[in-house]
Write a structure and sequence with these properties.
Helix content: 25-40%
Strand content: 15-25%
Strand order of the largest sheet: 1-2-3-4-5-6-7-8
Structural class: alpha/beta
Mean pLDDT: 96
Distance between the termini: 20 Å
C-alpha cells in the first residue's frame, strides 16, 4: 500500500516547507503504526497565483529532493516545465486543455467517474486519484462515492489508482481490498 501526501498549507501550523520536512522524516510503513513517510507528495495549493506557486514549488522540490521523496506539481503545467519537474498531477479537464507539447514523465489525474478514469488512462495518465471515497471536510455537503466506486475504477484501468477523501491509516485494509494501489492523505499529514 502506497501513501501520497497532498498539501494544503492552510491546514498546517508551520510554513509548508518546514511541515513537509517533518512529514518526510517519518518512519516507513513497516516501522510505525502511525502515518508513514509518504511515497509521493502532491503540491496542491490551488489558490496561489502562478508566480506564488512557482516560488513555493522551488522550496518544496528542494525539500523533497533532499529527503529522497518525489514531488508532483499540481495543475501548473508551465511551472512544472520551467522547473523541470518530471511529475505533474491535475484534474482531467486541466490536462485536456493543456498544450500537448510537453508530457511529464509521470502524469497523475484526478477522476470522479468511470468514464473519466478510462479517458485519463487513454490520455497517458500513469496513475489516478479517485474520490472522494469517505466523508471529508474538503467536500462538505457532498456525499462520498464509497469503496464500491473505488473498486469499480481500480478494476477498469491498468494503472495504479489511489483513493482520496476522508483517508487515514485505519482505512488501509478496506482500500487495499478494492484493488487500489494506495491512499492520498491531506489533513492527517498537514496537521501532523
Amino acid at each position: 500500500m502506497k501513501y501520497i501526501a497532498v498539501t494544503d498549507r492552510k491546514l498546517s501550523g508551520r510554513p509548508l516547507p518546514r511541515q513537509l520536512r517533518r512529514i518526510l522524516e517519518l518512519p516507513g510503513q513497516e516501522e510505525t503504526e502511525g502515518l508513514p513517510r509518504p511515497d509521493l507528495v502532491i503540491l496542491r495549493e490551488k489558490d496561489l497565483s502562478e508566480d506564488a506557486y512557482g516560488e513555493l514549488a522551488r522550496q518544496v522540490l528542494a525539500v523533497c529532493r533532499e529527503k529522497g521523496v518525489p514531488c508532483a506539481l499540481h495543475s501548473h503545467v508551465e511551472t512544472a516545465k520551467e522547473l523541470h519537474c518530471p511529475r505533474l498531477h491535475c484534474p482531467l479537464p486541466v490536462w485536456e486543455r493543456a498544450g500537448k507539447d510537453w508530457k511529464p514523465e509521470l502524469l497523475g489525474i484526478s477522476v470522479h467517474s468511470l468514464e473519466e478514469a478510462v479517458l485519463a488512462e487513454r490520455l497517458g495518465a500513469g496513475y489516478l486519484t479517485a474520490g472522494h471515497i469517505f466523508a471529508t471536510d474538503c467536500k462538505k455537503g457532498l456525499p462520498p462515492r464509497g469503496l464500491s466506486f473505488l473498486r469499480e475504477i481500480a478494476s477498469a484501468v491498468r494503472i495504479p489508482v489511489y483513493g482520496i477523501g476522508g483517508m487515514d491509516r485505519s482505512k488501509e485494509k478496506e482500500v487495499e481490498e478494492t484493488g487500489a494501489a494506495g491512499i492520498c492523505i491531506m489533513s492527517g499529514y498537514m496537521r501532523l
